[in-house]
Amino acid sequence: PAAGDSLAAVKQLLVNKADFKQLLRHPYLSYSQVCAIVNRRRESGRIDSLEALVFMEEYGPKDLHRLRPYLDFQ
To answer: What is 11-72's CATH number, 3.20.14, 1.25.40, 1.10.150, 3.30.60?
Structure first.
């Protein structure tokens, strides 16, 4: 299958709607990364894009590349 087809089959996690436990179940998110997301949402509201995670020390370039297909910021 084409790359676009395989990405369509990936179940995305709704970053701004998922609760702590739902986020923690994702295999590519660590406890500290989940805490960073939840704290950011509490302090600033919704997270608009993957690029917003760049400013969190818990996320490096490899993390962002690996997570890109799995996170939805709607």
So the answer is: 1.10.150
Q: Is 73 left (phi over 0), alpha (psi -120 to 50) or beta?
A: alpha
User: Would the pLDDT of 32 be above 80?
Assistant: yes
User: In angstroms, rounded to a whole number, what is the distance separating the alpha carbons of residues 14 and 73?
Assistant: 6
Q: Can you count the helices (H) and strands (E) in the chain?
A: 4, 2
pLDDT band of residue 1 (cuts 50, 70, 90) is very low
This prediction's pTM: 0.83
